[in-house]
Write a structure and sequence with these properties.
It comes from Methyloprofundus sedimenti. It is a single chain. This protein is of the alpha+beta class. It has one domain: Sulfate adenylyltransferase, CATH 3.10.400.10. The chain is built from 3 helices and 4 strands. Strands 1-4-3-2 form a 4-stranded antiparallel beta sheet. Strand 2 and strand 3 form a beta hairpin. It is globular, with a radius of gyration of 13 Å. The two termini are 25 Å apart.
Length: 109
């Protein structure tokens, strides 16, 4: 992983909110944006006994996000994603140029 930075948090903290865990388990959630690296490609994590594998880790800005990507995050739309993120992080402003790490994952069958 020489071309990727050190992890800023453990993989077990990648998907933690109960609604997002449920979305991942149902197959609606296949991405998680974080401001740091929580997992590298090919690492696995478990949610309620179901194993998932990180398939890719990409760098983009929050402004690159589309409605389709918000849905891959487990939200119905980009607007809802944005509203919930700002509600969860009081005092945060939506900065289109803020960099994020996108963790792509899928269920291990």
């Amino acid at each position: 992983m020489a071309d990727l930075p050190e992890k800023t948090c453990g993989i077990e903290r990648l998907v933690t909110h109960p609604k997002l865990v449920e979305a991942a388990l149902s197959g609606r959630k296949t991405q998680q944006r974080r401001d740091g690296v929580y997992a590298y490609p090919n690492e696995t994590f478990t949610l309620e006994g179901q194993e998932f594998i990180v398939t890719d880790l990409t760098r983009e800005t929050i402004g690159d996000m589309t409605d389709a990507e918000a849905q891959a995050e487990g939200y119905p739309s980009l607007e809802m994603y944005k509203n919930l993120i700002l509600k969860m992080h009081k005092g945060m402003e939506w900065n289109e140029s803020a960099p994020v790490w996108v963790h792509h994952f899928k269920r291990v069958e």
